[in-house]
Structures are given as C-alpha cells and as structure tokens.
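User: Hey, quick favor. My workstation is busy. Could you predict this chain's structure for me?
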Amino acid sequence: MKKIMLPALFFSLIFGSCKKQEMNKDIKAPVAEKQPTTLEKHGDIRTDDYFWMRLTDAQKNAEVKDEQTQKVYDYLNAENAYYEEMTKETKEFQEELFQEMKGRIKEDDESVPYKKDGYFYITRYEKGQQYPIYSRKKETLEAEEEIMFNVNKEAKGYDYFQLGGLNVSPDNKMTAFATDTVSRRQYFIRIKNLETGKIYKDIIENTTGGSVWANDNKTLFYAKKDPVTLRSSKIYKHTLGSDASLDELVYEEKDDTFGAFVTKSKSKDYIIIGSYSTVSTEYHVLDANNPDGELQIIQPRERDLEYEVAHYGDHFYIKTNKDGATNFKLMKTPIDKPGKENWVDVIPHREDTLFEDFSIFKDYLVLEERNEGLNKIRIKRWDGTEDYYLPFEEETYSAGVYGNPEFDTEVIRYSYNSMTTPSSVIDFNMKDRSKEVKKEQEVLGGKFDKNNYVSKRIWVPARDGKKVALSIVHHKDTKLDKNTPILQYAYGSYGYTINDGFSTTRLSLLDRGFVYALAHIRGSQYLGREWYEDGKMLNKKNTFTDFIDCSKYLIDSGYTSPEHLYAMGGSAGGLLMGAIVNMNPELYNGIIAAVPFVDVISTMLDDSIPLTTGEYDEWGNPNDKEYYDYIKSYSPYDQVVVKSYPNMLVTTGLHDSQVQYWEPAKWVAKLRDVKTDNNLLFLHTNMEAGHGGASGRFDALKETAEEYTFFLMLEGKLKK
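Assistant: No problem, here it is.
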C-alpha cells in the first residue's frame, strides 16, 4: 500500500515562503487494513475492501468495545492524529482566524421579539456563552423577563447538546421541549411548567423533537422514530402526567418510503398529520378541541400528487402540483368536502414562477415566490383591492417571510440580505406600505464596510445549452485573473435552493483575496421545479456537469486557474465533491467534502440505514437494474481509480444519522490506496458530533476556521 508522505511544499505553504522546507519523513498516513467483502447485485460483483468499518449503534454505545469496534476507533483516531500532526503548524493561525471570526459577532445579541398569544418571545445570548437563553415577556416589552431555558446551564457536562422544539401550551402555562445529547437527531421530549419552573416526570424518547398541543392544554401529539432506520413513522398522543409507555398510537405510516409528522394550523382549530415522500403527500386533520376525535383525510395519496394544507374560515387552502402545475399553485376546498374533486384555483400555476410558500392573515394573503432565481414576496388582499410585490433592488439577494404567528394583523415580518448586505429583520405594514427595520445584523471589529465588496450573477452556458447562474462576491480590490483564488460552493439535491446571503465568516476569505462563487446547479429549485427534476434520479449527473462547467467557465474566462480553484460541499454536496474529483480532478487545487454522501450504491441498497427507503425517489431504487447501473456510474466510492486527485480535506461525525461516518472513512482509505499524487488527503472525524457538527456557536466557528485554514494554506496565505 502506498503511504502518503508530507509534501516538501507543505511548510512553504504554511509560512507563505518560496523556500522549500525539509520534508518530515516520519509522518506517514494511516494504512487501513483490507478485508475484502464481496457484494453482488443484478449479477454485478463489487469488492469492498473497507466494509468492515461499518459499526452498529449498539457497537458504538457498548461500554466494552469488541474487536471490530476497537479496530474502527483505532483507525478513525489514527486519521485524526495524522491530521493534527500534519496541520500542527497551522494551529496558531487557526486560532487567530477563529478569534477574527468571533470578533465580528455581537456576543450579547438577541433576536427581535415576536408576539404570540399575549407574550413577546426572545432568544438572546450572553457574552462568552455558547448557547442561547430563551425568554418571554407578558404583554409589553417593559414587563419582567421570564427565562424559560438557559441552555448554557442545560448543556453543562455534555460534549454535544441541542435544545429545541419549544412549544408553549395554549394557556401559556407549560412548554414542551426537546433535547439531543448525541447529535443523532433522536430527541427526548419533556414538559416544563412555566409558572413554577418544575419539569414534569414525563419523558418521551426517540422522537423528531417536534410536538403539538391540543386545545385542552393536557394532550400532546408527537412523531416517534424507528430506532434503527430513524424514519418518523408513528404519531402518538400523550396525556400530561401519564407514563409515556401508555401513549396512544394515533397514526402509523406503514409505507417505508414515507415519513410522518404532526403540526397545528395557524388558526389553532386543527391538528394536522402529514405523510410525505419525495413525490407524494397525504394529510389528515383532527379537531384540536377534540383530541380523542376521528381523523379526517384531506385527499388520499396519489403518486406524483403533492400538496400542503392550511386552514382559514370555511376552507382549507392547498399548495399543490395538481393538474400538471409543475411550479405549484394555490387552491382551496370546503372543510366538509376536502377531496381534490372540490379544489378550485386561488393562485393559478405559472410557467415562469415557482410558488414556494404562503401565509394567511385575516385580511391578507402573503405569497413567497421565486422568479428567475430571485425571491419575491407578494401581498394580496382577500377582497381583491390590492395585489403587489415588495420592491427589492439588488442584482441578487435573499428574502423570506418569518413565521408570523399572529393572525389578525396588518404587519408582516420578513428578512432581507445579500452577499454584500448584512441581514435585516423588517416589519412591513401591508395597509399603508410603510416598513420599519427592527434589526440589522451588526458586524463588529470596525473593519466592515459593505461598499468594499461587490457581487454579481453570471449566467454560465452548460454543455447541454442550459444556463446556470453563478453568484460571485469579492473584495473590490481583488484583481480577477489566473492567480485569483476562488472557492466554488454548491449543494444541488432535494430541490433545496441555497440563497445568495451574507456571511460574517466568509469575510475572512474575501479580505484575503478569495472570490466566493455559489453555483445554482440543477438539483435545486433555483429556476423552478423543472430545475430540480432535471438534477435527480436518471438526470443526477447534470448536477455534477453543471458544477464542472461553472468551474471551466471561471478558468476559461480568466477569473482563475486550476492552481487556484477550490471547491466545497457538504452532505449531498459532499457527493457532488466526490463526483467532480473523479470526473475532472485536474480543475481543482483543493477540495473540502463535509459529511459527504459518497457510498451511494451500497447505502441505497441497504434499507436498514437511516433515510434510505424515503430517498428512492431522489436517487432511484438500485434494486431496479437501470437505477443500479446509473447510480454506480457516478457513486464516488465506486468510481475511485488509479490517478491523481486534488488536495482534500474530508470531515465526518461519528454519530451522523444522515450520512453514516463509514462512507467518508472508506472513501479516504480507498483514495489513499490508489491515488498517484503526493497531494494532501485528510480525514477529520468529530468523535462526539453528528451531521451538523459542533452544537455551540463558538465551537462551530472553530470548525469553519479549520476549513478556511486548509484553503488558505494551499494558497500560501498563512502567516508565520
């Protein structure tokens, strides 16, 4: 097996010097043992030398580690030790970068208060503290603060801690809350009396974290997860003060390609239970005043029929793709006749506009749309006397409507930011069209001036003639030529669109001469639902080629060169990274693949792995040979071959529930074995965290500082 030595150029990169340092020949990369496992499907035989790295939760959680578990831990720890040793000369710079990023953040910050049921709710941070404090004030902001949770106290003693799912009862006296101390998104739900501070004995295990109160203030609905696959498939109701083992099963989703959730209508009249897959949904409703009543179905599920439900007056309002509405439309139906045969258009389908979401108020309907990639907020009076869009003037930006829990109001709250403009929270009066900026994100440190940065959108021709939007931002003094470092980022799956937003941490790259380029590739819904459909299933490779075509455009147009082009993506974006380095490794000097989904074919063939069955309509079901062959043709782990690869940093979390840690671990082991270059290859495993990384706000900044250091190191921009 080839052992990767420390490149002679490594130290010169660290110190920004042209003089080469002596190579430390004692530092050698870990060598992963090969234990060939034969995998066969459709007559195709694959040999996986590193299949042994897969551990069950029981093995990971056992007090005494068995031989295999110990071997896996030894390997992951060896990779971590190698990474630490190889980068130890950068630690001082990492700390400087971390302090720089931290210095831009207002540590004693707080959210704009929002009002619900007579209380103003506030999330605030105290200087030096990692976690938020959740509080409220009755009726006025001058009232005495009631601290609901100080998460800094709750998190003591835990390496990872997440508190969420705060759900106050209708009478304002109690709140349900959820905690995760492992980072596997398996939450405990508990209930706290907000008047006495007492936490009830009720403990509900293995939930999604969300919950819904019935209007009787004693019945709580929640979704429970399968302990192995983590699929949320069962909805239960819990009675305050009772043992959770006695909770009644209200609904069970038996189709393993669907998940289930529970929520409540803004009108507070209905408990809503939803079942969802990638291409189909189904909803049941229950009278919130009668938690022991019968569920009413809105519309039975149909393949390729998607819909969402809201309630207002005598009707249910439904966002749906019915009747070929690819970009979705808004319909309504009487509450006593909810089936699709009774649905009528409220906002018709438009070919050029994606209908993303809607909010219902007493006198107004607020629509969130996307046209030519940009967010639009449309305000329409129910009586038809007004119908207008909020004006946004920048070339590219991000805007979105907040939850706005109050129903009888003329004011909506929305957010706005761009790649050069910090985020603002704005209250807009829909009647007189006045607005009030409630808060603008502060960038501390005294160095930030938005006028020092420029951004624009470039439309890049893809190889099949489509145009891909590439949003870029850089310091105004950065010269764009072949020596300019560019970090290109994308996601490109699940229809998830990354908006062009502001980042205080990104300034650390921009101020050091980097250009940041966000590629709006297929697989998102940036240009509508068809943009997503054209980047999934048997069209998935369009996602990868779009990204590569953007990279080639940046090089061919003189913005940069392969020696200075970098790429980054996480999760399904990590799959993107794995695909592009197999397809065109020569285009990039460095890659970061965060929690990457890289062993696609094996994962999608294993329905015991969390999330697998629910994703057949995203990637395809490889039990069908057509999909097996297609997925295998791009699956990064399967497509690793003997050739040169860029410098790479791969990150993962031992407790990741979304992308299991063994995927990136196996991928790195295989790359080490076959790659022919002397470039850097690191695997860094967070042994305490999962898919989202560290839970504290400062710990998360440290991870970002590590990632940026990797790119800056390769550019020779670290200081001694």
